[in-house]
Specification:
single chain; alpha+beta; 4-stranded antiparallel beta sheet
């Protein structure tokens, strides 16, 4: 039997699962970073830096005293997080490494067309260099014979694609980032495992994905669990969800006026007393709450547009617009830019969503912008 819940209750569940209804849910320091990434499952990485890059932004949203060095320490010194692919390149808890080994092996067996130009000689060269000299970045390789680029994102250095292939197959790991410059290290030497993790089976991976989604999304369906995943994995997830439903591990829910859209959740999630959010958050467009655009629109009646690659004359919200969550509503969208030279956070465009414009709401958002500016400027000192 499908349980009917209100849209307000659904939003409260989602915001609570994302830990956006509590001012400081994870504490501070490196341990807070690990706790946040472990709870969310992963934190997406992106290179755009008109404001602080999204992986730092996402963590700051949940860790008020977050410092960029906290993430660096977690990755490089404590080695409690690592980088790999989820729906995009992301930081993932090292405790979850085994659930990504199946994908690593699959990519080793079938690297795909992107890696077809990689010469085995280049692979041997970069591995020998790393084994001899320790972790390296692409800048440390100076003896490449440059080639013509075959893609806008490609490099003229053949070794770059060799490094990337080593990373995709799990033989190499990114041991450190200096800004966005990646340093590659032999995976087993970086982690110095006493015993290498045992790869999870495909079914274990799918169960892991379901549990990860239930923890961080509260209300899930196949599409939200398998965001940008292949059809084969979606088929298995659907089967496992049906089994959990049959075993009374999950219940089905729907919104009052959207009964065709059924979601799964744990019954205890519906029974818990959730603290309604009274906070303001300037969200990254890559924030886990916002990254699945159709899901965001369904629950929050807000269709976010990522317009960094949209021609200027066709933009609605601005180049790098950020949705602003006020309590449990997206009430504004603000296009921001950090002027690092002048040490200022610049508002390029402010757009109100729906009928939420008010003096009181504007003041609350401006108060949060002041705090956000301090984070932006502290990160460039």
């Amino acid at each position: 039997m499908i349980q009917i819940i209100s849209q307000a209750q659904a939003k409260d569940l989602l915001i609570d699962a994302q830990r956006l209804n509590v001012a400081n849910p994870f504490g501070q320091g490196t341990q807070a970073v690990v706790k946040a990434i472990s709870h969310l499952g992963y934190v997406q990485i992106d290179t755009i830096n008109v404001i602080e890059r999204c992986h730092h932004h996402i963590l700051y949203t949940r860790i008020p005293k977050y410092k960029l060095t906290d993430l660096h320490k977690a990755q490089t010194t404590d080695k409690s997080v690592f980088e790999y692919w989820t729906h995009a390149l992301a930081y993932v808890p090292t405790a979850d490494y085994r659930f990504f080994m199946h994908d690593m092996k699959r990519r080793e067996n079938d690297p795909g067309t992107w890696f077809y130009p990689v010469d085995p000689k280049d692979m041997k060269k970069v591995f020998a260099t790393i084994k001899r000299e320790g972790a390296i970045s692409i800048r440390d390789i100076n003896d490449d014979e440059l080639v013509e680029k075959d893609h806008a994102w490609a490099s003229k250095k053949p070794s770059k694609r060799a490094l990337q292939l080593g990373f995709h197959t799990g033989k190499l790991t990114i041991s450190e980032r200096v800004g966005m410059l990646k340093k590659y290290e032999l995976t087993e030497r970086h982690f110095d495992w006493k015993e290498k993790p045992k790869a999870a089976t495909p079914e274990e991976v799918c169960n892991y994905m379901i549990d990860r989604a239930l923890r961080s999304q509260a209300l899930v369906n196949v599409e939200s669990i398998c965001h940008l995943e292949k059809a084969q994995r979606k088929t298995m997830v659907k089967k496992l969800l049906s089994e959990r439903l049959k075993n009374n591990e999950l219940v089905e829910v729907a919104l009052k006026d959207q009964k065709k859209n059924v979601f799964y959740t744990r019954s205890e999630a519906l029974e818990q007393k959730i603290k309604p959010s009274e906070l303001v958050h300037i969200l990254s467009p890559f924030d886990p709450l916002a990254i699945q655009r159709k899901r965001l629109e369904f629950f929050f009646n807000y269709n976010h547009r990522f317009e960094a690659y949209v021609p200027k004359n066709k933009r609605v919200f601005g180049y790098f617009a950020l949705p602003v969550l006020v309590d449990n509503e997206i009430k504004a969208v603000i296009d921001l830019k950090t002027d690092r030279e002048k040490q200022e956070l610049l508002i390029q465009q402010w757009t109100w969503v729906g009928k939420h414009k008010s003096v009181a709401t504007k003041q609350r958002i401006e108060d949060e912008l002041n705090r956000f500016e301090k984070f932006q400027l502290a990160s460039v000192k």
